[in-house]
Each structure stands twice: as structure tokens, then as C-alpha cells.
# Entry
Amino acid sequence: MTTFLIILSIALAVLAVGQLMRVFEASSKLKGETSEVPTDAENRYQAKMMLVFLLGYFSFFIWLVARYGDLLLPEAASEHGVLLDNLLDFNFAIITIVFAITHVYLFYFAFKYVFDKDRKAYYFTHSNKLELLWTTVPALFLAVIVIWGLSEWIDITMDETPKDAVVIELYPKQFDWTARYAGADSTLGASNYNMISGTNPLGVITDQTLSDKIAELEGEIAEMQTELDAAPAGGLKEEELTERIEKWNRTLDKVKSFEGLEAANREYGNDDILVKSEFVIPLGREVAFKFRSRDVIHSAYMPHFRAQMNCVPGMVTEFHFKPTITTEQMREKTNNEAFDYILLCNKICGAAHYNMQMNIRVVSEEEFNKWMAEQKTFKEDVAPDETAEVSSEVGMEISMIEQ
# Structure
């Protein structure tokens, strides 16, 4: 109803303006003022109004900055974030200066060069000096911005990650996040989408999950084979079941191939830690993030740390940063007791994209170690009898991924 009233109000306003224009035209005709050419007095009036508009325009701009400036992100909470903010401030400075200069000249020229029938405009077709000026100057500024930006990007993506860094994998799917910490061995366990199940959402490969997955697939194939034996020969159902069995056998072969991984690689995942809804990182210690995706392209965006990375199916991307402000400290700085750092998906990935968020908590090293000690490891969290029970829906999802 509100939308309808707004549309109706706009339509009535347009009609009212149209009627006023018709009244103005009629009154002009009655006065004998039928000329479409403005008079000198009208030209001078419009020229003065340009200066008035210029003053109001910049006053409104200054008011907007003062009124809504505090709604921008607070200070960066990572080491490299401070450098990126400096780069952004440099960009804003250039944009604001150019914005001010061009608009001052725009409206001042409209005032200064008001129409004068006795003045003839100077016309020229080309100026090498002007071409050189407005090509070289922007190019120099752009070169500085690009080189500066690339150097900062290299700092967080190409520099060697410290050995004592906290290793975290952020794994998105439509429409949530899972964070996986490397355990005491500081190495994330191997993983593969074919290993995904109801209790192994990241497809982590361990001896236990391998045996359970193989048993699960063999059981599903046996059930479908029994159904196929009872199906009418030559029918559509027989064709569908045969195709499904072939797909599941291919998946089974891939899963069995993981048995060829080195024993150490199969052990790394046992002490991994999986968390949902919130993950914790320590103050003043490098955090190395690795990203995968289960379905479509997502983008891990941590605005307060000035960090973002695409999560691409079939590959691993990564970056690292060092947090510099705890959650409690930022709450004091922002005077907001409800403040939380947040992880968002910055790619429109589907209908519930808006719901893809996860809280991040920055704590001291002591608090972080205590929190880690309280978490269940992957081996403890996945019970063998539960792993073996996977719904047919999950099985169909694996088949769809394979297709």
C-alpha cells in the first residue's frame, strides 16, 4: 500500500508540474511574450543562480560528510588494513580535489561567460599541449595508485606465511560457512568433495572417514543392485538404475583411490577442528586463511580487517593477516557493546546470499589457546556409527556434483 501511495504521489506531482507549465505558457501568450529566446535579464539571473547553486551544492556535500561520516567502517583491525586505508585515503583525496576544482570551474564559467551578443566565442579544433596535459597527469596518478595497490596486495598474498601462523580454512556453501582449524600438527588434513557426507561436510580424508565412506557407498550400490534385479527388463526404471549404479561405482573408485595417500596425510585431519557460527583468532599473531567452495563462487569478505578473497570450486585460494585490535577493544573504540567482527559473502551466490555471515572474535593469545583446548577434534566429533548413516539425499548430491 505504501509503495502504491508513493507511485501515486509521484504521478500527481508530474501532472501538477505539467499543468503549471501550461498555465505559464498561456499567461505568456496573454502578455504577448511568445518568444522562446531568453532575455538578457533572464540570462544574468540564471548566471547568478549558478553561483547560488554552487554554494548550496558544496554546503550539502559538506553536510553529508559530517552527518554520515561516522557510519563508515571504524579503523582497520589488521596490520595491512592500515596500509590499505592509507591507499584509500589517497584515492579519496584525489577524487575530492578533482571533484571540487571541476565543479567550481563548471559553475563559475556559467556565471562569467553569460550570453553576450557582442562577444564572439574563440574556437579552435586541436591543442597538443592540452592533449598532453590531460593524458599525462591522470596517467601519473593512476600509475601511483596501481603500483601502490599491487604492492599492498602482494604483501598479503605473496609474502611467506610465518611458521607459527594459525591455519584456518574457510569453507562456504549455499548458504553458510564452516571454519576448519589445523590442529596440533599445524597442517590441515586432505579433503575431497567425493568424501562429503552428513557428518563430514568438508570431505576430510582420514582412515576412519575412508572406511565409513567406502562401506556407505558399497551399501548404497548393493541396495540399488537389488532394486535393479527386481525391475522389469528393458524398462525405463532399469535404465535409470543402471546409470545410477555406474555413477556410484565411479565415485566409489575415486574414494578408494584415496587409500593410496601417505599415512601421514590421512592422519593430519584427525586433530582438525570444525566450527560454525563463530570462529576465534588471536591478537598479534599471523592468521593464514585457505579458501575452497562446495558449490558456486563465493567471496570471503572481512571488512574490519580490509581482507577479501574469492572462494572458487575446485581450487584453493589464500591470504594472511595479523589482527591488531581485540573484539573488546573495538567495542570500546566504537562505544558499541554489541559490536562484532564479521565474515560476509561478497558474491551474490543465490536466494539466501544475504544470510551468509559468520562472527569473528579476536582475543588474546591466552584466551585463544584456552578456547582451542575446549574444542572437539574432527576425530572426536565424528562418531563412526553416525558416519555410516548417510541419507540418499547426500548421495544424490555427490552424483550431481560429479555430473
